[in-house]
Each structure stands twice: as structure tokens, then as C-alpha cells.
Amino acid sequence: NIEQDLRGKKVLISAGGTREAIDPVRYIANRSSGKMGYALAKRALARGAEVTLVTGPTKLTPPAGVTTYEIQTAAELEEAMLTHYAKQDIVIMAAAVADYRVKTVAEQKIKKNAETWQLELVKNPDILKRLGELKREQVLVGFAAETTDLLAHATKKLQQKNADLLVANDVSRKDIGFGADDNEAWLLTRKNAPKATGKLKKTQLADLILSSALQLRGES
Ligand code: C5P
Known about the structure:
Elements lengths: L9 E6 L4 E4 L2 E3 L6 H12 L3 E6 L11 E4 L3 H12 L4 E4 L6 E3 L18 E3 L3 H8 L4 E8 L3 H11 L4 E6 L11 E8 L5 E7 H18 L1
Parallel strand pairs: 1-4, 1-6, 4-5, 6-9, 9-10
Antiparallel strand pairs: 2-3, 7-8, 10-11, 11-12
Helix pairs in contact: 1-5
Bound molecules: cytidine-5'-monophosphate.
GO molecular function, one term: ligase activity
Family: In the C-terminal section; belongs to the PPC synthetase family. In the N-terminal section; belongs to the HFCD (homo-oligomeric flavin containing Cys decarboxylase) superfamily.
Protein name: Coenzyme A biosynthesis bifunctional protein CoaBC
């Protein structure tokens, strides 16, 4: 029964983009809409899983029945993921995490003055990589949004982050990826050759990702 094939399974999903504060009124963000992560949460719930969603700010409403935690920064996202990680069967990092944050967040609004302004940034933790290091029984799923050399970059990420499944998509295309309802991806695993999904609704791609992860869970 495909409808309930995730019954008894715990699935942890991150979604949306993070926000890194500059001062009390400004932040650094990215183009993530959260649609892919929310589609995963919705489909995992429909298939019977116990779903935890950790989400950056989005315009979307979390599906009723999903335990949801709202975060803003990469540091908050990391903390939430680590808190819930140990008990999960499947963990999916669909969030677009800021790679850098502002080194010193100003307590007061920064006034405009000079003609140029340099912000100093420091690297954020790579959460997926950290989860890969701590991995035990969990099936770990990551994403790779690329504009060039999609498969080469994705293959490297699968290895370097110790993920079991990597979903790679070309974000230079307007019709798929950021903000769109459709997506077309490559699914990469450690054992098999990359598989192209063809163009799908994000909910259909979510089902494919969940099915692949469930299969890997069975093999582990
Ligand atoms: O290295 P890159 O950012 O392209 O890797 C993308 C994958 O890594 C996504 O699954 C994303 O959620 C995750 N990631 C992360 N922490 C970061 C950057 C990316 O978990 N600081």
C-alpha cells in the first residue's frame, strides 16, 4: 500500500532559506521559496510518516499534522536539526542555508554615509556535512542547486557530505527550481548511476525522493 508506506517512520525535513541579520532592519537572504521542502513534508505525512519540519521564513503554511519549528539563521537551523536528528529514519536537507553570515551584527541601524560599504562575512557551519558525520541508521538526503557542471558538483557533494541520496537541480533554468511549482532533477546515490526524473510537479518529485529514501532505508 503506497499510500501508507511511511507508517511508523520518522522523517525530518528542513525547508526554505535562512536569514542572516546585518542590523535590526536588514538581512541577507536567498531565493528559496520553501516549496520543495513543504511538498516533501506534505507527501511524507500523507504516506503515514511522523514528520518534523524545520523551516526558514516562507509564504507557505505548514501542513496540519506536521510538527513545525520556525528558524531564521543557519545557527538556529543547525541547532534544531541536531536536536531532532538521532531518532529519525529519513532526514532531508531541502533548506537553502546561507553559506556566510555577517561577522558582527550591528545593534543599531547602520546609517548610510560612505560611498562604499564592506560587510565582513564569516562561514556558516555546513549542517548537512555535520549530519553526515553524526549519521548512524538515518538515510540522509541533500540537495544541490547548481548553475554549471550539475552532475560533477552533485557527485562531489554526495561523497563529501556523506549523504545517501542527493537531489541535483539546475537553478539557471527559470521553469524549474526556485519559486517554480515544477522541478526536474537528477537523483544520485552511492551505488547506482544518476537518474534523471524528467519534469515533475514538486509534489511528484517529493514522492520519488521519499520512495528512494525508503528503499535505501530498507537496504541499510
Ligand atoms: O554545498 P551546498 O550548499 O551546495 O550543498 C547543498 C546541500 O547542503 C543542501 O542539502 C543544503 O541544505 C545543505 N547545506 C547545509 N549547510 C550549509 C550549506 C548547505 O546543510 N551551510
